[in-house]
Amino acid sequence: MKNKILYTFLTIFTIVSLTGCNNEPDYVKNQETKGLCVATECIKQIEITDTVEEINKIVGFDGELIDEEYNTYSWKLSDNSELEVTYYSSDESYIKIYIEEDNFKNDKVNLDKYDDIEKDLNDGIELKYEDFINRIGAEGILVEKTPYSKEYLWVNKDGGYLNATFQNSSGNCSFVSGWF
């Protein structure tokens, strides 16, 4: 009997170990990268005060200066993803990732409450990122960081999307747009 229990435990442990309990979203697993991180993870690791040299270390290779006037650098992470950082004339950067929205399709994203969200914002009701998660049913994908705000993207299974910008100072949503 003890051997059966031990055998059962070892079997379950082996299955869990091999399949993993990875909480990494599918969109992360499906992204390719030439660097040390995929675009959606790189943007989370990079701070707006990071220098180009610090970003090069995070990404795993040197970025290319693509605009001298605005001091914009680009890291082509794969054939369909890019990280772009612009410093303008300050030490703080504007960080953005570019990836086709279809890569983020999520069965959990429900955009049926978009009109309610838009009405609440127009009525002056303060909505935070957590409010969006509760109403939409899933976390958004961080697609832009600036000294003033963060922008998130939600994409439903049909390719409909919602973008929302949240102010760093208050955490409140200041802009929302979408297509369904």
Classify the beta-strand content into a percent band: 25-35%
Run of helices and strands: HHHHEEEEHHEEEE
State the secondary-structure class.
alpha+beta
The total of beta strands comes to 8
Mean pLDDT, rounded to whole units? 87
Task: Describe the main β-sheet briefly.
Answer: 8 strands, antiparallel
- Annotation field: number of helices: 6
Helix content: 25-40%
Q: Strands across the major sheet, in which order? A: 1-2-3-4-5-6-7-8
**First-last Cα distance:** 57 Å
Give start-end ranges of low-pLDDT stretches: 1-24
| Rg calc | 20 Å
Shape verdict: globular
Describe this protein's structure.
The protein is α+β, with helices and mostly antiparallel strands. 30% of the residues lie in helices and 27% in strands. The protein contains 6 helices and 8 strands. An 8-stranded antiparallel sheet has the order 1-2-3-4-5-6-7-8, with helices on one face. Strand 6 and strand 7 (161-167) form a beta hairpin. The protein is globular and about 45 Å long.
What tags apply to this protein structure?
alpha+beta; 6 helices; disordered N terminus; eight-stranded antiparallel beta sheet; about 180 residues
What's the gist of this structure?
Helix content is 30%, strand content 27%. It has helices spanning 2-19, 26-29, 39-45, 52-59, 114-122, 129-136, and strands at residues 64-67, 72-78, 81-86, 94-99, 141-145, 149-155, 161-167, 173-179.
Q: Strands, helices and their partners?
A:
Blueprint (H helix, E strand, L loop, with lengths): L1 H18 L6 H4 L9 H7 L6 H8 L4 E4 L4 E7 L2 E6 L7 E6 L14 H9 L6 H8 L4 E5 L3 E7 L5 E7 L5 E7 L1
Antiparallel strand pairs: 1-2, 2-3, 3-4, 4-5, 5-6, 6-7, 7-8
